[in-house]
Amino acid sequence: MAKHVTQNLALAFLAGIVLLAILAPVLPLPDPIAMDVMNRHGSPSLAHLLGSDEFGRDTLSRIAFGARASLAVAFIAAVLAGVAGVALGLVGGYFGGWPEILAMRPLDVILSFPPMLLALLTVALIGPGTETLTVLLAILFVPTYARVAFGETLSVRHHEYVEAARALGHTAPRILFRTILPNVAGPILVQFSLVVAACILLESGLSFLGLGVTPPESSWGLMIRGARPYMYQTPAQLLWPCLALVLTVYSVNRVCDMLRDRFDPKATVRWLPVPRTTAGATATAPLPAVGKMLDVRDLVTEIATPRGVIRALDGVSFSVRPGETVALVGESGSGKSMTGLSVMQLLPRRIGRIAGGEILYAREAAEQSAAGGAEARDLARVPLARMRAYRGREIGMVFQEPMACLNPVYTVGFQLTEALRAHELMTQAEARARAEEELRRVGIPDPARRLNDYPHQLSGGMRQRVAIAIALCGRPRLLIADEPTTALDVTVQAQILVLLDDIRKMQGIGLVFITHNLGVVAEIADRVVVMYCGQVVEDGPVEDIFYRPRHPYTRGLIASVPHDGGNADKSRQLFSIPGTVPNPLDLPPGCRFTPRCQAAIEACTKAPPAMEAVTAGHQVRCIRWREF
Question: In terms of domains, do 528 and 389 share one?
C-alpha cells in the first residue's frame, strides 16, 4: 500500500513539474529575468510567492522556467542516448561478430573517461549552451544504454521464443524490435530513469560551474550558484531549487519503476473462469502420401567450441513422406534436436554450420507420382535471407518448452496475429478472426477469450496447444516437433499426442517427432530413426524397430522401457545401458557404441560401420546385425 502511495505522489509531482515547465510562458508569472534590485532577497508575498533572489527576480518564475531548461536537456538527451544506445546494443548482442565489434568497441572509448571530466573538457573547448549540453550528455550516456541492451540481448537471444520467431520467418529487424526489445524493456526503462536523473544533476552541476545553461536563461544550477553566497542570510533561496532538483530526480525514478511493473504482464494475475465448451480440430481432406516431402542425405553439421570443432551430425540420412510421422529417438546429445535445427537453418550464429550433405524439400511432394517426382530444393544451400520463404509457411516447428517459446510480454492473440500477418496480407480484424479459428482448431476452449490471455495465464497443455497453433498458422506441409510433451504430465501428453496425430492425418502433413520417450514413439510414429553420437544407427518401420531391432543400442533402449503386460515378470529389473555418451571431441575408433556395447568384438573397433539394408525399408549400422 505504501509503495502505491509513494508512486502516486511521485507521479503527481512529476506531472505537476512537467506541466509547470510546459505552461510557464502562458502562466501569469513575472518575467524570470526582470530584476528589481530594491527588492533583493525579498520575503514571500502575493507578488512573489516564493520570494525573490539576489537580483530581485521572482523565485517561483525562475524555478518554472528553470524546469524547462533542466527537464528539456535531461529528457531530450536521455531519449537521444536511449535510441542510439539501445539500437547499438540490440544489434551487437543479436548478431555478434563484426557487428558487435563495430557497435560496442567505440563506446568503450567513451566509457574510459569520467563523465564529468569529459563534459568539462568538451564544454570548455566548444563553449557553454543548451544545445551543446544536450548533445554532449546524449553522447556521454549512449554507452550505458548500449551495455544494458547488449547484456540483456545476450541473455534472451537463444530463448525458444526468439528461435520460434526465426522459425516463423520473421526478419532480423522485426525480431530485434518486436520480440527481443519488449523482453529487455524493463532494465532499459530503469536505465532511462537513471540517465534522466544523471542528466539533471550533470546539467545543474555544469550550470553551477558556468559551463551549462548561460544567463540570462534560468536553470536550477544557476539558481543554486546565485543563492550559495547568501545561504546563511536567506537559506530559502537555496532550498527551493535544491528541493525541486531532489524531488524531480526521486519522482523520475519512482515513476519509471511503476511503468516497469505496469508493463510486466506477469505482475498481475487475473481470475480465469471455468471453460464451458471444448472445441475440436477442424477436419480437412487428407493428402495422398506418395513421394518424399523431406529427404535428408548425409547431413553433416559442425559446431565450433573453444576446444575445437565437433561434428554434431555426421552423415545423417532419413526421409519423410506427406502424412507420415518419423520419430527421431536417442539419448540426450545424440543429435535429435540438432537435426531439426539444421533442417530449419536455426543453428547457433557464427559457431554452427552445415558442412555437408543435402536437405531436399519438395513443395509439391503430395502430388508426386511413383515414376516421376517433384522438383526438390536443397535447404542446406538456401541463403539465410531466403529461408523465410520456408520457415513457418512450408516447415513449422514446435519447441520443447511452451512457456519458453511463447513471448511472455505479449498476449496469445498478438502472437497468433503476428504469425499470421507475417505470411499473408490481411487486416488486423481478419488476422484476429483467423487466430480464433486456429485456437479452435487445436482444441482451445473459448478461443475468443483466450486471445486476450498472456502465456503465464494458461496451463502447460494449453500453452503447448497455442505453440502448435502458431506453428500451423502458415499452413506448413511439414511440422517438426522437438519433444513437445516432455514438460507435460501424462494426461496432457496423451492429449497433445492425439492432437498432433489428428492434425497429421486430417491435413496430410509430414511430421518429424523428436523424443527420447519410446512409449510415445510406439503410439504416434510410422517410422523410427534411432540416433547415437550424431549418427543414424537404425532406421525402419515402427514394428521392425520394436519387435525386430537389429542394433545393440536400439535393443538397449527398448529393454530400458518398463513393460506393463498381464504376463510380465514383476521381478524383472530394467536394463540400463552401461557407460555414457562419449565426448564428441574424443570419439572412439570404429563403431561409436563400442565402449558401451556388450556384444562388441575387436572388429568393431576397426573401421566405422556403414548402414546396411536389413529389409527394403529397414537399415542398421552394425557389423553383427545378422546375429541379432
Answer: yes
Integer Cα distance of 360 and 366 in angstroms? 14
- CATH number for the domain that contains residue 515: 3.40.50.300
235-262 helix and 220-227 helix, angle to the nearest 10 degrees: 150
Q: Which cell numbers in the block locate residue 181?
A: 526489445
In this structure, the answer to whether residues 236 and 315 fall within a common structural domain is no
Nearest to 333 by CA among 585, 47, 125: 585
Predicted TM-score (pTM) of the model is: 0.67
**CB-based contact 498:466 (threshold 8 Å):** no
Structural domain span for residue 530: 294-394+476-538
Confidence band (pLDDT; 50, 70, 90) for 262? low
Virtual CA dihedral for 220, 226, 230, 235, nearest 10 degrees? -10
In a domain, 471, yes or no: no
Considering the domain architecture, whether residues 212 and 104 belong to the same structural domain is answered as: yes
Alpha-carbon gap, residue 585 to 582, rounded angstroms: 8
- CATH classification of the domain holding 96: 1.10.3720.10
Query: pLDDT tens across 475-526, in order?
Result: 899 999 998 887 677 778 888 888 888 888 888 899 999 998 888 888 889 9
Residue 452 clears pLDDT 70, i.e. is over it = yes
Residue 244 has φ and ψ, to the nearest 5°, of: -60, -40
